[in-house]
Design brief:
12 helices; six-stranded mixed beta sheet; alpha/beta; Purple Acid Phosphatase, chain A, domain 2; about 40% helix; 2 domains
Amino acid sequence: MGQPFALGAAQTHAPPKERAIFHLFFSLPWLFVTLRFILPLPWHSAAKVILALVLLVGSQFLLWSRLSSGSPFAPEMPRAVVLAFNVVYGAILLLAVFQLVVDLARLPALLIGQGGFLVPVGVRYVMGGVALVLAGLGVAQAQRVPPVRDIDVVIPGLPKAFDGYTLVQLTDLHISRLFPARWTQAVVDRINALHPDLIVVTGDFIDGSLAMRRADVEPLRGLRAADGIYAIPGNHEYFFEYDAWMAHFAAMGMHLLPNAHAVLTRGDGRLVLAGVTDLSARATGHPAPDLGKALAGAPAGAPIILLDHQPRMARAAAARGVALQLSGHTHGGMIVGLDRLVARANAGFVSGRYDVDGMTLYVNNGTGLWPGFALRLGVPSELTRITLRAGAH
């Protein structure tokens, strides 16, 4: 999304009061776990205080990220520490959910004055253990090099020369201390082995400034495709030196499409590849997404593929005659159940293929993940190879 809580770029340089509210918000699951899970434990008070303090430190991962880099979105600390913080914070969130379920189960009895039922201490230990194990598994799933996911998309009116054309979509790499140069190189190697006709990147390349991430993004220079690499910005590019990053990606050989298009040709066949800026651009003084500008001068009758980081404006794209929109941003919702909440914030689109008024929308689960909440349970990351198929006009 870049991140799951719809946080804006302004948080990077927010006033002290807003920063305090921001970090207090992320303390709420810790507070609930402390009051409803830790306090009832039959432990010595000192042991409960120690556990609560350890979890408090873990709950403030974004504060430590801000202190390490100046931004809550770019933890500049050893990768092992980033992983550990994600496991601890993930366990806090999951345990809060488990405790809330237990409390809701007790509520009817409490309402009729029966006092509910006591939760055996053994059950509490199991809840804590399961939360920690699931958090560990979720972080392991989040930080892996993604597998390839193959899909076919039928494009009405696709020229025969483009039937079987393959493109690989990357999105939400979030190259950072969590996803460093060796991870990026492994992603590049896996993509190049596919020998695609085209590679597209639908935003959120990085978390960090150019000085922080220069070495980590360098492997992207090795991406290879017959028709090149095309890209658009995501919301996180606007958090960190947007102009410098766009110039750097262009210097690496990428073709950028901020409210612009390119025409791909195969013999007499033509295919329009268009891109727009991110919806967050206006808030940082940069051009807002403008599909009309992106399509200006495009050849009439040629099928249009649109790159748009966020899926929310898919219906507007369909109304403009776009055949296929490729998006990311949502990370697929990250966790089964949470994906329903993420969908509500993205016009109902969260993961996979949608038919939107005759247009195909594909929302990629993401190649990487925001390092501030790196947890995947039941929602795998992906490198998406899309094969275009000709369909009737």
